[in-house]
Design goal:
Elements lengths: L1 E3 H8 L4 E8 L12 E2 L1 E11 L2 E15 L6 E15 L10 E3 L4 E3 L1 H10 L10 H7 L3 E2 L2 E2 L3 H6 L6 H13 L1
Length: 174
């Protein structure tokens, strides 16, 4: 999502410069994060001009696929992010400030959209679909298995089977 400074200045003096469109952020899937799938996001906002500063206020709507923290199945996670980014043509601002310098005549908002999405990725998500949880979760592996309450009552630990036979012998003697 790129804008030229003259395009913004021409319309921002009378009223805020409004913009809306879809941005492809699928590059985030290749980065080292939990996002398994994300396509286009919808960005809508406006830009206000105050001296040398361009103040962008925008909303990012979209949906990403994240892994469930318990089962690792795909969980759709819709998001609605409100962000404000400030840019300036003045040389007085350093790179450390909250104000981003503009180099050249074109302002590219796409890296800041991606950054705001990455900042909003939740620490963990859980799947609510019980069927998906059953399909995606292994129930046993090498030297382990999942024990539910029903299977726990039916099976006796093999280490304790000899004790059970001793209890039966004591009951028979009495």
């Amino acid at each position: 999502m790129k804008f030229t400074l003259t395009q913004i200045k021409k319309s921002a003096h009378q009223q805020p410069f409004s913009f809306e469109g879809d941005v492809d952020v699928s590059e985030l899937e290749k980065m080292n994060n939990d996002i398994r799938k994300i396509g286009h996001v919808h960005v809508k906002g406006e830009c206000n001009l105050q001296g040398n500063e361009f103040i962008f206020s925008f909303t990012i709507h979209g949906k990403m696929i994240l892994p469930c923290a318990r089962t690792l199945v795909d969980v759709p996670y819709p998001f609605d992010i409100h962000a404000t980014e400030i840019f300036s043509t003045s040389e007085a601002y350093k790179e450390d400030d909250e104000i981003h310098p503009i180099h050249g005549e074109v302002l590219d908002l796409t890296p800041y959209i991606k950054e705001n999405i990455l900042l909003e990725v939740p620490f963990r998500v859980f799947s609510d679909d019980p069927e998906a949880m059953k399909k995606g979760v292994p129930s046993e592996g090498r030297d382990w298995e999942v024990i539910t309450e029903e299977t726990d009552k039916k099976t006796i630990d093999p280490r304790l089977q000899k004790l059970a036979s001793l209890l039966k012998d004591d009951n028979n003697k009495s």
